[in-house]
Amino acid sequence: MQELRNLSYPNSLFYESLYSNSELLLDSAKKSLSMHARDEYVNAKFVIKTIDNILNKRSPLGLKDSDIALILVTLFDYRFTDDVSNLLIKYSTVLRRKTFSNFLSTMVPIEVSSYCASNCKFCGWKSSNKDMIRLRINDDGFFEQLKYLVNMGFTHIEIASGDDLDFIKNNLNDLIKKIKFYYPQIRLSICLTPLSTNTYNTLLNSGLDAVLTWQETYNKDLFNSFITSGPKSKGINDSIKPVVNGNGFLDRMMSQERALESGLQVGLGVMLGLSDTPGTDILSLILHGKYLIQKFSSNIKPLIIGMPTWNHITTENYDIKNSEVSKFSIENLFPAIASLYFISFEDKKAWIFANCRVSMKTQVNTIQAASVFTSTMVLLGPGAYLKKSLITSSFSRYFSKFSNSKSEISENELLLGEQFKHYFYEHSKYIDEFERHGLSICSDADLLKA
Questions:
Q1: Beta strand 440-441 with 399-402: parallel, antiparallel or unpaired?
Q2: What are the pLDDT digits (tens) for 282-300?
Q3: 3-state DSSP call for residue 227?
Q4: Residue 346 gets which letter from DSSP?
Q5: Helix (H/G/I), strand (E/B), else coil: 266
Q6: 204 contacts 262 by C-beta, under 8 angstroms
Q7: Confidence band (pLDDT; 50, 70, 90) for 407?
Q8: pLDDT tens digit sequence for 64-80
Q9: Can you give the pLDDT at residue 6?
Q10: The domain that contains 152 carries what CATH number?
Q11: Are the C-beta atoms of 399 and 382 separated by less than 8 Å?
């Protein structure tokens, strides 16, 4: 254990130079390609052959960094996008079946609180959003939903919340203990603001299994332009208070090491659609993940590679997402990006996490190609899984705090309090669709044994 602690001391120099190193790799790849750009036909033929050779020479340890950069340059060059996408998906589909057979694990989040002390411009729960209904669910409301979801067959539950520091400080640990007391068989993750090593140690001892933390972007200037205040912009200390003059960008990047130090499984991801240069963020994430795998070696469980996308929010007056269509559609590229993630990492060291922010068709295509971990039936508001009768007739019983002046809230009002817009289908419909495509559901505890 002492050796692991020494190994896992965060190297801030690696993180501070991560994005610029990714830019250098991509620039080098562009120069390499430009030497063969005599005309479009020859260039296209060369690109297809080059990418095909890279994929066929891939080792079980994954792809070389320079090869990943070359693939990204061609993937985001409109002349080659379709051909490169098809090559990635074709290769990854074979590797996914070879590595994980037809197995797939599903998870579902339970949102605890939409109160948030951080101001992230892209998010519906940003602190500046005055149109958002704010709710915090109590234990009765949480367990009413948990029972419903476990009875559906879910074996992985994510506790999610805005940056509600009061909940994290006073309720989170006891909630985890209570969940594991009544449902010891489920795996439990959190998707919250990054916490300290001491806090992660405490939560692990209470039964926590995994921590999912999305970096959003590895571009410091872009991060700070979107995340302007609050714990996410500063980081928090052991007392669950924002760090005065803290660096939330760097703290967030290094947070996976703190969770790994505690023995937790970790997730990392960038928000697709946030950056005008997505290739740099994607490469930075891959380099980050490979660094963690190398640093923690055999002690690390498979990384969960998240693929959040920048979607519209429910409160239109506060929605800043540009509705103009980019020449690169994240929806269309989603399976190809997932495939690149999957083949870049060492075999069995990464679970690609498809989600409900894309259409069911795209989600299933992504699972067939690369993903072995996915969400279904996602609702992104506190109490959203409660039956309408419970919401309207027993409001005070299931919520410990709410911003609405009324004592009751309708189901429609509750759903308008979701963090992002997304696709929703019943879990049974997802299961039918998975089975129709030859996929078989297993618990992620079993997936860890694969």
A1: unpaired
A2: 999 999 999 999 999 878 9
A3: strand
A4: P
A5: strand
A6: yes
A7: low
A8: 999 999 999 999 999 89
A9: 35
A10: 3.20.20.70
A11: yes
Give the C-alpha separation, 333 to 395, whole Å: 42
Compute CA distances 147 → 11, 142, 301, 327, 425, whole Å: 42, 9, 28, 44, 19
Distance, CA of 231 to CA of 305 (rounded, Å): 23
Rounded to two decimals, the pTM is 0.94
The residues near 57 (Cβ < 8 Å, ≥ 6 apart) are none
pLDDT in tens, 137-167: 999 999 999 999 999 999 999 999 999 999 9
> What torsion, rounded to 10 degrees, do the Cα atoms 61, 302, 196, 4 define?
-60
* Cα end-to-end span (Å), the chain: 25
Name the burial class of residue 130, with classes exposed (0-12), middle (13-18) and buried (19+) by CB atoms within 10 angstroms of its CB: exposed
Q: Looking at the DSSP assignment, which residues form a beta bridge with residue 62?
A: 59
Distance CA 427, CA 430 (A): 5
Residue range of the domain that includes 25: 2-447
427: exposed, middle or buried (Cβ count in 10 Å: 0-12, 13-18, 19+)? middle
Q: Which of 370-374, 377-381, 403-407 has the lowest mean pLDDT?
A: 403-407
State how many domains the chain has: 1
Residue 360 host element (H or E): helix 360-369
Distance from C-alpha of 362 to C-alpha of 333, rounded to nearest angstrom: 9
Report the interhelical angle of 278-296 vs 330-344 (nearest 10°).
30
311 with 61: CB under 8 angstroms? Answer: no
pLDDT number for residue 392: 56
Residue 288 has which token pair?
Answer: 């980050």
Q: pLDDT band for position 389 (50/70/90)?
A: very low
